[in-house]
Structures
1.
Amino acid sequence: MQCKQDEKINITNAFWGRDDFITCSENAPSNRSIRQYSLDNNVHVIMKVKDTCNKRPTCEFYATRLFLDDVTYSQVYKYLRVVYKCVPKDSTKKKLSGIVSALWTR
């Protein structure tokens, strides 16, 4: 995730699991299912991503089960979907850069 130099990241939502059969289905490992839903505890995921990225101009990490403390549904090929805004570093300004969605898989 990356914002302009005078902006910072503000995470608005994050999802870890599988809520459809199409997203990130290409090149999935043969030992992981893409045909099974997995709706995990995303409150924890949102907090983990916020703690890692909020208020920074850029943020990069590997979306892995280990990083997200995931011990559920190990047979399902999951992805991380993050929604964030780039907001001015000076919090008194009202301008927003827009909403961007990013996907990672592991």
2.
Amino acid sequence: MPRLYNRKTPKRDEATIQNAVNAVLNGSSKKAAAKQFNIPRTTLSLHVDNKKAEPNAIVKIAGWGRQTVRSSICFKCQQINCLFLLGV
């Protein structure tokens, strides 16, 4: 039988988060805005950083984890270019 999930913290109001993000973008510090709107600084920081990266996008938390490395193709290209420059 599956267990029921109970949130440990209440879900934040999107309007409050948006107001806090706008306050930070208009010059307020993250610490002051977090205290004024009663939002954790880490939550506010994630939303602000995401908003700066995508100004017209809906505010959402960025994905976690390691970024994809696409250096294998570039490494092969560098080897070919190096061999070409050496005249091999």
3.
Amino acid sequence: MAKARLKIFPDTSALIAGIASSKGAARELLRLAEIGLVEICISKQVIVEADRNIEAKLPEMLDEYRTYIKSLAPKLTDDPSPKKSKNILQLLMQTTPRSLPLPSPQRLTVL
């Protein structure tokens, strides 16, 4: 029986960082997806936002980005709901030591 792959849901900034850089954690996650060890899950919201940001800030990369996304073939997911993000943030606040920074609710999604 095939082992289930870990699902990764990058936010827009992580997706852009992973594509634009040859180093760093975001790039390594994309490399793991390229070789099939993890599954990248992306919402339409993230794809549209990344496309818009790349077009505005890195226009020379736009064609490369679009080609890469097609070749990566991420699993398309529903846009994260604000309610689910809020619930996750509340759970983190209850279980995370106060000394650790918490991500914004927009960056939290569980599949």
4.
Amino acid sequence: MPRGRAKALAQELTARGADCRVFPLVSFASQKISGRSMRPREMQQFDWMILTSAQAVRAVVSAAKELKLNLILAASKLQLAVSVQ
């Protein structure tokens, strides 16, 4: 849960008598996806691309834009699964 939402939830629960502690359990580090990682020909050999965070989606889209790569054409048979909150 994003820090802002967690604090708001903790405040609400505290107001109802709960003893809450808010602290990060996950840390995100930005990692640049290079052109080597986004090779259109190689993408076509896979059936699925699974992205498990909004960070991953943003990284893939950013790399595709930088490479002027149309993901729909580059991976025409690729199924995409996205699991984000």
